[in-house]
Specification:
Elements: H1 2-26, H2 54-61, H3 69-72, E1 80-81, E2 87-91, H4 96-101, H5 108-119, E3 128-131, H6 145-162, E4 166-170, H7 172-179, H8 185-188, E5 193-195, E6 198-203, H9 206-211, H10 216-233
This protein binds uracil (URA) (2 copies).
Length: about 240
């Protein structure tokens, strides 16, 4: 039907325009928008049974008091998004907004992460967002080694349940903890690493980008590598 076709063209143009606006906003105006990765981000092995579910792990965490942060947090921040995501983002720990709402990346840094996702042709429902730590450290102090060790065990189980194809490690603290390295994040970013046998791309944290917008170009380069990997590894799915 001609009307339907016209509507589809209008919708496609509107989507392209909005993606361009996001890229401009990010400071990537001269870059082409990435091809939408939407349908390719579903994990093809999703139906394979065997591992525990995200809900089961969440239930086991319960009113977690396994480390001292349990006493000071408002809400435990587990993770959100697609339980079958092929792409998982791991941040550091909940901040103030996340602690209040119980959802990761809902503050200012999270809004920038949403725009990065949009520029990738993705939405937060397509991917899975979580943190190394599930509870906010008081005044956003660095997590302590015992807090990391206790909480990472649950992150590992979440990742085993999702079985993503690619992980993005956001920021120095998460990347150092996951990869057990102290190399500068400026050296680590942009180079594929491995976490639990899954390719991991370290990149700058969106909170860092808020203070250092010149880092956005590097993050966009890293996200393009991520999209290429998802597209290559997703061929034939
Ligand atoms: N910073 C993080 O590392 N994680 C969040 O969820 C929010 C801010
Ligand atoms: N320093 C950080 O803590 N995180 C980054 O992402 C970059 C620099």
């Amino acid at each position: 039907m001609p009307d339907q076709l016209a509507n589809e063209i209008r919708a496609t143009l509107a989507a392209a325009r909005s993606q361009f606006e996001y890229l401009t906003d990010l400071g990537f105006a001269e870059q082409k928008a990435a091809a939408p990765a939407g349908p390719a981000v579903q994990n093809a092995d999703a139906a394979i049974p065997g591992s525990e579910t995200l809900d089961a792990i969440f239930n086991e965490l319960g009113d977690c008091q396994r480390c001292a942060l349990g006493a000071s947090r408002t809400k435990l921040v587990y993770g959100v998004g697609n339980p079958n995501a092929r792409l998982v983002f791991v941040g550091e720990a909940p901040g103030r907004e996340e602690d209040l709402q119980g959802e990761p990346f809902v503050g200012e840094a999270g809004q920038l992460l949403d725009r990065i996702l949009q520029a990738m042709g993705l939405h937060r429902d397509d991917v899975y967002l979580c943190n190394l730590l599930k509870c906010r450290p008081p005044n956003n102090r660095d997590p302590q080694p015992d807090e990391v060790a206790t909480c990472e065990a649950f992150l590992l189980r979440q990742i085993a349940a999702i079985r993503p194809q690619v992980i993005v490690g956001l920021g120095r603290f998460a990347v150092h903890s996951l990869l057990k390295t102290n190399a500068p994040i400026s050296k680590l970013r942009g180079e594929w690493q491995s976490y639990q046998g899954i390719p991991l791309m370290p990149t700058y944290h969106p909170a860092y980008l808020l203070r250092n917008p010149e880092g956005k170009r590097d993050v966009w380069d890293d996200m393009k590598q991520v999209l290429r990997r998802l597209q290559t590894d997703g061929e034939g799915l």
